[in-house]
Amino acid sequence: LSSPLLFRPAVSSGNSIYIPYWGNKIGYIDELHISKIQRTDEEIKTRVITKITSANPTISDSNTLILDHFNSVSNGETVGTTNYIDGLTGLDKVIDFSSAGNYNIYPVNANITNAGTVEMWAYLNSYNKGLLTINWSKYYSSPSGGYVFHLGVDSNGNIKLSGWSSVVNNDFISKSAVPLNSWTHIAVSWGDSTKIYINGVADTVSVLPFRPSVYS
After folding, report:
1. Is the terminal CB of the chain with fewer CB neighbours within 10 Å at N or C?
2. How far is CA 141 from the centre of its chain?
3. Distance from first CA to last CA of the chain, Å, rounded?
């Protein structure tokens, strides 16, 4: 599946990342990992296999921008009342976003315009929800102007990427649905191409890069 349009969220330094979309009640999230490079297929696959076989946490490296294990505390700014519950075996706690109004904010301290990867383990309890959003400033409620990058699931459970810019407004959607009430590894990456992964497998690939654009 390819898109005839470029996907241009603004993710230059100074923006903020929100998980989930300003307080959507989505379920549980663990091992949020955001990188400033496009991770390879093998890296994504290995990360999932490692979780399944030995349940080791994600390891930070020089290309990691944000890594949050949610082990009873978050390194993001927490808004609302956030709880932590037992998660995947060996991964200690996970963050509970099953109630509305709770979310985390992380600053974007690097320019990931040309390449980036977002990964997380998600246990979804409903569809048609926003999982992660990037906006050009910090807000404590959803602004009327929308967002510049959005990762979510549509009403059918398919992963959906969308963005806003002065040039284009378009969506990029996975072929497969994320199951409800089950731990699933979700990843998206952009660089030479744009890919959506479900449990380590590239489910949808765009031959045109959905590259974020820089907004000053």
Report:
1. C
2. 19
3. 32
